[in-house]
Fold this protein.
Amino acid sequence: MPVFAYKALSSTGSVQTGQIDAGDRGEALRLLDRRGLQPVSLKQATGVVSAKREKTEGKPAAKPGLRSPAKPAKPTEKSGDDLAEGGQMKLKRAEVVLFTEELADMLGAGLQLEPALKAMEGRQELGSLKNVAQGIRNHVRDGMNFSLALRKVSPSFGPLYCSLAAAGEASGALDTILKRQAHYLNTLSELQSRLILAMIYPAFLVFAGLGVTVVFVTILIPQLTQLIESAPGGKLPGPIQLLVSASDHLGAYWYVYVILLIAGGLFFKAWKDNEANRPTWDRIKLTLPLAGPVISSRFYVQFLETMANLVGNGLTLLRALELSRDATQNLSLRSSLNEVIDQVGDGRALSKAMVRTGNFPPLLIDMVSVGEQTGKIDLSLRRAAERYDKELNKDLNRIMALIMPTILIVMALLIGTMAYLMINAIFQTISNLNGR
């Protein structure tokens, strides 16, 4: 086993030197960390034999046939060392938000990244996040970028999260970026909670309406049909005949429609998940009636906030655009940013490049142009982000407000139409009987 010579600082601040047996440099660093030592230098020693190896060589060989029974290994939770060596731990969204908020607060308080992660390891209330923090810290201490360490430790830190973390590292504003990301995740969770709460009553109405429809089609309309046909000269009205025929057809071939519906859903999912079709699907999402404006507004807010943080922390405009593009998941919007990057790289102003692409709203372009003229483009970008954040909230509230009346109108039309057809059929039958 290799031997490493180290020079490290203890928790009291004193300098300690010595040697340590480890399989590689990463393991040696972890062993020193467990002893409470902060390494200053660590080099592999040459011409030194491991003490463990000396003891092994000095012991007589074990007699053949005499083996101690092996104890079965107990399944244990993944530790930070396991995560650092390639294992991954899935996190809930609430845990990702908690990790982001805690780390952002510590970085904002002045701690460096590695000490902040180490401090999170000692927080008992963080639970399994302590192992995640340890795994990330081990990677960072070995020289890996924070954004890459996030990808290695947990798949719950998605591409957007890791891209924004890389932008924060490049600009020196990691704490600000993480706070923005925590705000975004909290907003997303709040939106989902609001959507679930808002859909409880409409879902109840939908199920109640479907139940009433089933009762109409399976019980009331067949009884009414028998009553009308049994009457002298009774004849079913056209709409009732159409409804009965549709009911009989669905009753006989319902399984065919279920199979077609499932097959269509699987085909659409396969088409959507195909990498070759992703640009088309991302472009279609931007044109959807209600979801399209929300996706576009969310992109403008994220793009403007990221650009404001990067430019405000000293990055060049071109590098800030590249990092903002990497943090954009929609391929259609990313292609627009590629056009902007190409034109800015050729020396054109950012506002002019946005105009030439034709994919940015005039208000956003005007605010960017004002920032270019005043020399305070980061402030203009931040004001534009705040404005579009308000617009995004308005769009979401508008959608939430439209859900309830839309469902009520649909259910009222459905049940009202059936009731009208039944009452009309009854009155027509009565009129025929009176006419005789």
About this structure: The two ends are 109 Å apart (CA to CA). The chain has 17 helices and three strands.
